[in-house]
Amino acid sequence: MDFIKSVILSLVFTTLSFGQQLSSFTEELFNEYSKYEVEGFSNMKVQPDFLQKQIDLITSKAPELFEVQLLGHSVEGRPIRMLSVGNGNTDVLMWSQMHGNESTATRSIVDLLSFIAENRNHKSVKSLLQDLRIHFIPMLNPDGASRWTRENAIGIDLNRDALRLVAPESRILKGVRDSLNADYGFNLHDQSKYYNVERLSNEASISFLATAFDYKKSRSAGRDEAMQLISYLYQINQQYIPNHTGRYNDDFEPRAFGDNIQKWGTKLILIETGGFKNDPEKQLGRKLNFVLIGSALEAIQKGLHKAISVEQYNQIPRNDRNLFDLKIEKVQKKVNGSYYTVDLGYYLEESGYDSNLGKVVYHVTLEDQGDLSTYTGYNSINAEGLKILYPKVYKGKIKDSAHEKSLLKEGILYYTKAPSRRYLPQTMLQYNDGVEQEISLENTYFLINEFNEPKHLFLKGQLIDLQ
Ligand SMILES: [Zn+2]
C-alpha cells in the first residue's frame, strides 16, 4: 500500500515538475506555425514603415476586430501605434523593440495579429477575445529600429528613462501603462547571444524574468503570479528547446520600465530572446515567442498557471555569460621564444559584406585567452598540437591556383605582385608595400602542425581549413 502510494505520489510530482501537459492550443500554435508566419519578416532588420504597412494589411482584413490607436510620435516623428483586440475585462499590455535592434518579438507580434485576424472563429481565439483585452505596441523605438541601434534618436536607452521620461517614446509607454492600468504586462526584448544556461554549455535561447520592484527583491501577489506564469511557460520551452532557457538577472534597476511597471501594479513578465546556433535571424526565436505569448494569453484567460508553486520559478537555471562565437582550444602561442598553451575566445560581430572575399565580414574581438575550459563556443576547434604562425609575404608573381595553394602551405598569405586573376579570392591578400599589414591574433594567422605545415588559416574571424 505504502509502495503504491509512493509510486503515485512520485508520478504526480514528476508530472508537476517535469512533464506539464501542453495544452492543445500550445501544440497547435507550435505545430501549425508555418501557416501563420507572415512573409517579409525573415530578417532581423525590420524597417518601421514596412512594419506599419504589413500591420495595416492584416488589420484591414478584420477591421471590426482591431482598434488601432496612434499613441504619439518618436523623436524623429515616426508614428507609434497600439493595436487592441478583444472585449474582456482583463487588460494585457505588451510592447516590443523598446531597444531598436531587438526585433524578434516584433515579428512574433505580427504573426500573432495575423493569426488572430484569420482565426477569429477558432474556439480558443474566441474565448481569448471574450475574456481579455490585449494591447500590442509593436516597435516602441522606431527611430532606433530604422538605424538599427539599441538607443533612440537622442542616443539614450529608453529602458533607463522610466523615471525622467525625457524621450517621447518613454512618455508614450508610461501614459499607456497608467491609462490602462493593465493587469498583465509583457516586456519583450532580445538579449546577448553570449548568455548560456548556468553550468551548461547551451546558449540561453529564451530567458524569463519576473522583474523585481525593489532592491530587496521583495515578493508580492502580483510578482508571485508573474513567477507562476513564467514557470508555466518554462515547461513549454522544456518541451521544445530543453535546457535552453535561463532566468534573467533579477537585480533591481530603478530607472528601468519593467521594474517600475511591476511596482506600479501590473504583473510583469520579461521575455528575452537570445542566441540560436546556426539561426542568426532567430526564426526559431520568433516562432517560440509566438507560441509563448499565445500560450501565456491562454493561461491568463483560464488561470492555467495558478496551481503552480512559486518555488518552481526558483528552480529555473539562471543566465550565465560563458559563450564565445569561436573558441580555439589549447593552441601554442609563442612569446619571447617560448611556446605557451592558451585557449582563445572570440566575439564576432557582423560588420558587412566583402565582395572581394565573397563573404560576410566580421568585427573580431579576442575577448579572452588562457584557460577557458569553463566556456564554450558556438563554433570551436581543438588545436592541441598546433602552433600559431603569423603569415609571410611572397615577393614573386602567383602563377595559378596550384601555385597559390602551395604558397599557402608554406605559410605565405600575402603577395606583392598582383596575379592576372584571383585564384583563391577567399585567402590570398594584396600586400601593400609601406603599409603596415594587420597581422595579429584578432586578424590573421596560420595554425601549423609539428611539421610546420599550415592546417588552418584564421582570417578576420573565419577559420579556413587548408586540408
Ligand atoms: Zn532590450
Q: What does this protein structure show overall?
A:
The protein has 467 residues and is α/β, with parallel strands linked by helices. It folds into two domains: 21-320, Aminopeptidase (3-Layer(aba) Sandwich); 323-465, Roll (Urease, subunit C, domain 1), CATH 2.30.40.10. The chain contains 13 helices and 21 strands. The strands form five sheets. It has an eight-stranded mixed β-sheet with strand order 1-2-4-3-5-9-7-8, with helices on both faces. The protein has a four-stranded mixed β-sheet with strand order 13-12-11-14, with no helix packed on it. The longest helix has 20 residues, at 221-240. Zinc ion binds at residues 99, 102, 189. Zinc ion is lined by residues 99, 102, 189.
Write the layout of secondary structure elements.
Blueprint: H1 2-17, H2 24-31, H3 33-36, H4 48-60, E1 66-73, E2 79-85, E3 90-96, H5 104-118, H6 123-131, E4 132-138, H7 142-147, H8 168-180, E5 184-190, E6 196-197, E7 206-209, H9 221-240, E8 245-247, H10 257-263, E9 267-273, H11 283-302, H12 311-315, E10 319-320, E11 323-335, E12 338-354, E13 359-370, E14 376-382, E15 387-389, E16 392-397, H13 401-409, E17 412-417, E18 429-430, E19 444-448, E20 454-459, E21 462-465
Parallel strand pairs: 3-4, 3-5, 5-9, 7-8, 11-14, 16-17, 17-18
Antiparallel strand pairs: 1-2, 2-4, 6-10, 7-9, 11-12, 12-13, 15-19, 19-20, 20-21
Helix pairs in contact: 2-11, 4-5, 5-11, 9-11
Bound molecules: zinc ion.
